[in-house]
Automatic annotation (TrEMBL):
<protein>
    <recommendedName>
        <fullName>Tryptophan--tRNA ligase</fullName>
        <ecNumber>6.1.1.2</ecNumber>
    </recommendedName>
</protein>
<keyword id="KW-0547">Nucleotide-binding</keyword>
<dbReference type="GO" id="GO:0005829">
    <property type="term" value="C:cytosol"/>
</dbReference>
<dbReference type="InterPro" id="IPR050203">
    <property type="entry name" value="Trp-tRNA_synthetase"/>
</dbReference>
<feature type="binding site">
    <location>
        <position position="140"/>
    </location>
    <ligand>
        <name>L-tryptophan</name>
    </ligand>
</feature>
<keyword id="KW-0030">Aminoacyl-tRNA synthetase</keyword>
<comment type="function">
    <text>Catalyzes the attachment of tryptophan to tRNA(Trp).</text>
</comment>
<feature type="binding site">
    <location>
        <begin position="152"/>
        <end position="154"/>
    </location>
    <ligand>
        <name>ATP</name>
    </ligand>
</feature>
<dbReference type="InterPro" id="IPR002306">
    <property type="entry name" value="Trp-tRNA-ligase"/>
</dbReference>
<dbReference type="InterPro" id="IPR001412">
    <property type="entry name" value="aa-tRNA-synth_I_CS"/>
</dbReference>
<keyword id="KW-0067">ATP-binding</keyword>
<comment type="subunit">
    <text>Homodimer.</text>
</comment>
<dbReference type="GO" id="GO:0006436">
    <property type="term" value="P:tryptophanyl-tRNA aminoacylation"/>
</dbReference>
<dbReference type="Pfam" id="PF00579">
    <property type="entry name" value="tRNA-synt_1b"/>
</dbReference>
<feature type="short sequence motif" description="'KMSKS' region">
    <location>
        <begin position="202"/>
        <end position="206"/>
    </location>
</feature>
<keyword id="KW-0648">Protein biosynthesis</keyword>
<dbReference type="GO" id="GO:0005524">
    <property type="term" value="F:ATP binding"/>
</dbReference>
Length: 342
C-alpha cells in the first residue's frame, strides 16, 4: 500500500475548551469550509479528548462539545459533504494514540514549544496527557490515513511530529508507506490571529480578559466595542505592506480585515493606506459583524436543539469509525497484537 493511492483526505479538529474565537474561525473553521468544496474527502472532529488535558468541568464539557459542533455547522460544514463527529465517540483515536505513545520519543515531546508555553514553570504539575497530546493528535490524523491537515500556525510543529511518528512507525515495523506523510495546510492572511490588547500574543479562548478576543457568539455591539478599544499605535495605516513590519497590532487588524473580506493584506492596504484608525476600525467592526452575526444566530438556533446536534454527531461517528476501524485492525496486525476472536 502506498500513500499515493490514498484519496486526498483532510482531517482537522478543534478543542471544546471554551468559546470559539475569531482566531478559530479564520485560522481553522473558515478554511475547513473552503476545503470541503474541493477535491478532498473532509473529516472534522471536536477534540474533546484533547480538551481534558487541562481541567474541564464535567457539567459543561458536553455543552461545550455541542457548541463547537454548532460552530462548525453554522459556519458551513455540511454533514452531507464532510464527516463531523466528536473524538470521544470514535474510540479508535485513543487506541491508536496509545500505540503512538510507544512510537514517539520523549526527546521529541520535549521539543514541543506549545507544551513548554502551556506548562510554563509548572511543568511538574501538569497532566501527563498535556505532554503526550501531540501523539494523540497524530492518531487523530493517521487513523484516517489523512494527507492534508489545515491548521493555524501554532499547530505546525504538531503536524511535523505526526510525520516523524508516521516515518518511524513505517520504518520500525517495515510497513513501507502504511501511514502517509501528511502536509500541514497553513494558508491565508490569518493563520495567526493575535490578541487585540497585545499584538505579541495569540488570540486564545482562555486569555484573562474578554476584551482581548472576539468570540464567535459576541453580539454586534460587543464586536464593535472590542475593535474600537483594540490596541493600535498613533500612526495612520501605511501605504505598503512593508510599513506594517514593526507594527504587530496594526498588522493584525489588517490581516483580520483581509481574511474576513477574502482578499490579500496588500489589497486592504491598497484600499486603506494613509487612513487613520477612526476610519479603519469602524469598517473592520462592520465587516466582522456582517460575517459573524449570521453564524452566531445560527449557532444559537442549533443549540436550542441539542438532540439534533447529537444525531448529526452520531451519524458522523459511524462514518468515521467505518474508515478508522480497518486501519486500526491493520495497525494491530502490523504491531503483532493478539486479539483472540470467537
Ligand atoms: P484550538 O482552539 O486550540 O483547539 O485550535 C483549533 C484550531 O484553531 C487550530 O487549527 C489552531 O491552529 C486554530 N487557531 C486557534 N487560535 C488561533 C489564532 N489565534 N489564529 C489562528 N488560528 C488559530
Ligand atoms: N490540537 C489542536 C489544537 O489544540 C486541535 C486538534 C486536535 C487537531 N486534533 C487535531 C488539529 C488533528 C489538527 C488535526 O489546536
Amino acid at each position: 500500500m502506498t500513500a499515493a493511492t490514498h484519496t486526498p483526505r483532510v482531517l482537522s479538529g478543534i478543542k471544546p475548551s471554551g468559546g470559539l474565537t475569531l482566531g478559530n474561525y479564520l485560522g481553522a473553521i473558515k478554511r475547513f469550509v473552503d476545503m470541503q468544496g474541493q477535491d478532498y474527502e473532509t473529516i472534522y472532529c471536536v477534540a474533546d479528548l484533547h480538551a481534558i488535558t487541562v481541567w474541564q468541568d464535567p457539567a459543561e464539557l458536553k455543552n461545550a462539545t455541542r457548541e463547537v459542533a454548532a460552530g462548525f455547522l453554522a459556519s458551513g460544514i455540511d454533514p452531507t459533504k464532510s464527516i463531523l463527529f466528536n473524538q470521544a465517540s470514535v474510540p479508535q483515536h485513543a487506541e491508536l494514540g496509545w500505540i503512538f505513545n510507544c512510537v514517539a520519543r520523549v526527546g521529541w515531546m520535549n521539543r514541543m514549544t506549545q507544551f513548554k508555553d502551556k506548562a510554563g514553570k509548572n511543568s511538574e504539575a501538569v497532566s501527563l496527557g498535556l505532554y503526550a497530546y501531540p501523539a494523540l493528535m497524530a492518531a487523530d490524523i493517521l487513523i484516517y490515513h489523512a494527507t492534508h491537515v489545515p491548521v493555524g500556525e501554532d499547530q505546525k510543529q504538531h503536524v511535523e511530529l505526526t510525520r516523524d511518528i508516521a516515518t518511524k512507525f513505517n520504518n520500525d515495523f517495515k510497513a513501507e508507506n502504511f501511514f502517509p506523510l501528511c502536509e500541514p495546510i497553513i494558508e491565508g492572511p490569518a493563520t495567526r490571529v493575535m490578541n487585540l490588547r497585545d499584538g505579541s500574543k495569540k488570540m486564545s479562548k482562555s486569555g484573562e480578559s474578554d476584551m482581548e478576543r472576539i468570540n464567535m457568539t459576541d453580539d454586534a455591539d460587543t464586536i464593535a466595542k472590542k475593535f474600537k478599544k483594540a490596541k493600535t499605535d498613533p500612526e495612520p495605516l501605511p501605504e505598503s505592506l512593508d510599513g506594517l513590519k514593526e507594527r504587530p497590532e496594526a498588522r493584525n487588524l489588517v490581516n483580520i480585515y483581509a481574511a474576513l473580506s477574502e482578499q490579500s493584506s496588500e489589497a486592504v492596504i491598497g484600499e486603506f493606506g494613509g487612513e487613520g484608525w477612526g476610519k479603519f476600525k469602524p469598517a473592520l467592526a462592520e465587516l466582522a459583524v456582517e460575517k459573524l452575526a449570521p453564524i452566531s444566530a445560527e449557532m444559537k438556533r442549533l443549540m436550542d436543539d441539542p438532540a439534533e446536534i447529537d444525531r448529526l454527531l452520531l451519524n458522523g461517528s459511524e462514518a468515521a469509525q467505518a474508515i478508522a476501524e480497518p486501519i486500526l485492525q491493520q495497525t494491530y496486525d502490523i504491531v503483532g497484537l493478539l486479539r483472540p476472536r470467537r
